[in-house]
Amino acid sequence: MGHVNLVLLMDISRARKTLTIEKYVPYARQHPRTRAQAAGTVHVRRCVSTIVVNMKANPPSVQGAPLTLEFEIIVGRPAVGQEHDVVFDSAALLAIAGGVFRGMP
Questions:
Q1: What is the mean pLDDT of residues 55-61?
Q2: Domain count, the chain
């Protein structure tokens, strides 16, 4: 079975003209034994990054950049040679949000 190693949530607000991106990764947490459950490890999500692109601001703004997608997490192996993390800087995030809101009043 595959494991989820990265989740990106995107919230698009037409009214505020904002694009919010949250990056979640799993982490292991030990929990004690209870009557209902044996002791052991559970994997829970942890928000490690929140980015807000505000297209209504003048000029449009980005808070929380960059968005980094670690190569080993998205591909499942260490980077080799010229392979590297995927990094979306402020300019790239503004371009993505511009595409999302293009044609919207």
A1: 97
A2: 1
